[in-house]
Amino acid sequence: MKKSAVSKKKQVTKPKRVAKATRLLSGGNPQIAKGDGERPVRSYIASMPDWKRKVGERLDQLISKSLPDVNKAVKWNSPFYGTEACGWLFSFHCFTKYVKVTFFNGAKLDPQPPGSSKHAAVRYLDIFEDDDIDEKQFIKWFKQAAKWEGWRAGL
What DSSP state is assigned to residue 47? Predict the structure, then answer.
């Protein structure tokens, strides 16, 4: 019996990594480690429960379409969007029955988003499960917001 010129090494198989399920905080908000860039935002959106995931995906698409050079990050278990020139402009967060969109300079938007804040410049819009997203209005808001200073913290 001839020996092979190439020795056959025994293949060692590594156990497959099993992805841990993302922990959902109160209201179904995903607990995602803070980080900069596309990856943590994608992780957050992928972990949003039920119908809220589609809302997050659509908001992310609309923001990216409106502001091609947008910076993304996850801070305080919420995705943040902004630009180098303006700072952070928008964020959204899951609650039990809705997704809250935050416009950090929303008081300057025309028309203003309907939800007021204890901070004079901030406005909110709550999106519920059966709401239709007015995509044209969101795009207008996103483009308007990029004209003014947003919130500066770590950008």
Answer: H
